[in-house]
Amino acid sequence: MSAKIKPSYLGHRERIREKFAAGGLDHFLDHETLELLLTYAIARKDTKPLAWALLKRFGSLSAVLDASVEELCSVRGIGRQSALYLKLIRGVFKKYSLDEVKEKVTIRTPEQVINYCKASLAGNSDECLELIYLSIRNTVIKTEIIASGDLDRVSVSPRKVVECALAAKAAAVILVHNHPSGDPTPSMEDILLTKEIVRSAALLGIAVHDHIIVGKGTHYSLKANGKIA
Q: Crossing angle for the helix pair 110-121 and 80-101, nearest 10 degrees?
C-alpha cells in the first residue's frame, strides 16, 4: 500500500507557525496574521481562504477583530468557536493595553494613552465616554466609562465628570470617547463640552490633560490640535 499523502495545508500551517516563531509578526501581512490565528481555532482545514474572506468582508485586520461574534459567523466557514477565539484575541489586547497605563504606572508618552484608548473603545457600536483618572504624579488610578449613547451622540454634563473625578480622588483626568462613524474629527458640541469641563474641573483643582476621540484606526487629540489649553 502507498503511504497516505498529507493534505498540502498541513505543511503551510507548519511553515507559517515557524515564520512567527523565528521573527514574530513584524513581517506578517494582515492575511497571514489571520491565517496563523485561525490555525489555533480550526483543525484540519486550510485557513488561508478564510483569512481572505474575513478581510474581504471587513476590510482590515483591526476591523475583523472589532467585529461582533454574529458578524464574524456570517462569513462562510467561520463558526462560533472561531469567532469567539478572535474576540478573545481582541479582549487580550485590550487588557494588555490597559495594564500599560494602569495600577501605579506613570504615563510617560502620549502613545501609551492612545494605545489604551484604541484598545478600549475602537470598534464599539455605541458612543461612549471614558475617563482615565490620574494622581498628582500622573499615575493611573483607574479608568471608568461614565456615559454611553446611540450611534452618534453621548450625553454627559460637566458636573458629572467633575463628580466622578472627585469620587476617584483624581488630580487630573483624560477624557476619551469614540466616534462609531469612524471619523474622529470633533464636532462643535464636542469642543464646547470639553472647554466647559475644563473650566468646571479647574474650579476644584482638577486638570484635564486631554480629550482623545477614537475613530476607525485613527484618533484626534483636542490638546495636540490646540482646541484646549
A: 150
Q: pLDDT in tens for each of the 229 residues of the chain?
A: 444 555 555 677 888 888 899 888 888 999 999 999 999 998 878 899 999 999 999 999 988 988 889 999 999 999 999 999 999 998 888 777 766 655 545 665 667 777 777 777 766 778 888 899 999 888 888 888 898 875 445 678 899 999 999 999 999 999 988 888 888 899 898 899 999 999 999 999 999 999 998 887 788 999 989 998 7
Contact between residue 228 and residue 211 where contact means Cβ atoms under 8 Å apart = yes
- Amino acid (1-letter code) at residue 182: G
Q: Which residues face 210 on adjacent strands?
A: 174
Q: Find, among 97, 99, 67, 101, the residue nearest to 85 by Cα.
A: 67
List all residues 6 or more positions away from 124 whose beta carbon is below 8 Å from its beta carbon.
178, 180
The rounded distance, in Å, linking the Cα atoms of 225 and 219 is: 11
pTM, full prediction: 0.60
Q: Say how many CA atoms lie within 13 Å of 58 toward its Cβ.
A: 27
- In 3D space, the residue among 218, 211, 165 whose CA is nearest the CA of residue 190 turns out to be 211
Which residue type occupies 64?
V
CA angle 35, 66, 52 (to 5 degrees): 30
On the 0-12 / 13-18 / 19+ scale of CB atoms within 10 A, 108 is exposed
Q: What domains does the chain contain, in order, with CATH numbers?
A: 8-94 (1.10.150.20), 106-221 (3.40.140.10)
User: What is the DSSP pairing of strand 140-148 with strand 128-134?
Assistant: antiparallel
